[in-house]
Design goal:
The chain has 256 residues and is an alpha/beta fold. The protein folds into 2 domains: 14-44; 55-247, 3-Layer(aba) Sandwich (Aminopeptidase), CATH 3.40.630. Helices cover 47% and strands 13% of the residues. It has 7 helices and 6 strands; from the N terminus they run H-E-H-E-H-E-E-H-E-H-E-H-H. The protein has helices at residues 11-47, 83-100, 121-139, 169-182, 199-203, 219-225, 228-247, and strands at 61-66, 104-107, 143-150, 161-164, 193-194, 207-215. Helix 2 (83-100) links the parallel strand 1 and strand 2.
């Protein structure tokens, strides 16, 4: 025998429950709309003023070079962050963005490796750089994005910066467009800068820039560079900069 009494049908109670369901549904709808608005506001810091240029990236060949790798760790952060790892994370995010925009993306490396074979580190580094240049030439890329992380004895230095070769007018324009986008999310506003010592910039025939995404020698920036949200924002800013460069009517021509 059951000790539970049959539940009585209560019309008022049923109406009240229906009202509660409706109120709760409206409440959660408002919450969802609010969350959507917050996400849109966050995104607007980078992409709210982007013109409808995504189509212009279709068919363009973009070579993404994650600097260092394998036996070459690059710079090492105060908390032991390896530059090669951060460079690769940003490069993979860029790969997704450009692929979605219809670009032909060439990744120089997609894992932790270098392209040298010599047992002598200096010679191996030369082989590695030669491979990167040859690959760029073989793919006939329109744009070369070399991704690096910075380091400097003065640990106060911070902020991303883009470099171009002084003899490349198109490289300068591309660097300035990317720098302008990066400055939207950086606490320190920098200017694109010419550099004639970077091997990649000296030896490529396509429009090329080197993007130093931040300083691993700065403890606060090193921490940010390890955060997936900040990595995505950096990648979006670089992507936006390339799109803005092309949308301004610049032709991706060689700087012979």
């Amino acid at each position: 025998m059951s000790l539970l009494k049959p539940a009585k049908y209560d019309r008022k109670s049923k109406v009240w429950n229906k009202k509660n369901v409706i109120i709760l549904a409206l409440f959660f709808s408002v919450l969802a709309a609010g969350a959507s608005y917050v996400n849109e506001k966050r995104a607007s810091n980078i992409s709210n003023d982007i013109p409808g240029w995504s189509w212009i990236l279709g068919g363009k060949t973009v070579l993404i070079d994650a600097g260092h790798g394998g036996v070459d760790p690059g710079a090492i952060g105060l908390n032991r962050t390896l530059e090669k790892d951060i460079n690769l994370e940003i490069s993979k995010r860029l790969q997704v963005l450009f692929t979605q925009a219809g670009s032909n993306v060439v990744m120089l490396r997609e894992d932790d490796r270098d392209f040298g074979t010599s047992s002598k580190l200096l010679q191996r580094k030369r082989e590695d750089l030669a491979y990167r240049i040859q690959t760029a030439m073989d793919t006939d890329a329109d744009i070369y994005l070399s991704v690096h992380s910075n380091s400097f004895p003065d640990q106060r230095q911070h902020g991303p910066q883009v470099f171009y070769h002084p003899d490349s007018e198109e490289g300068k324009k591309l660097a300035e467009c990317i720098q302008a986008s990066l400055n939207k999310i950086a606490s320190k506003k920098r200017a694109a800068k010419s550099n004639q010592s970077y091997f990649i910039l000296k030896n490529t025939e396509m429009v090329a820039v080197t993007i130093e995404i931040g300083f691993l020698s700065n403890a606060e920036e090193e921490q940010k560079l390890n955060q997936t949200d900040y990595q995505q924002r950096l990648s979006m800013a670089i992507f936006e900069g390339v799109g803005n460069y092309l949308s301004e009517g610049h032709s991706v021509v060689t700087d012979d």
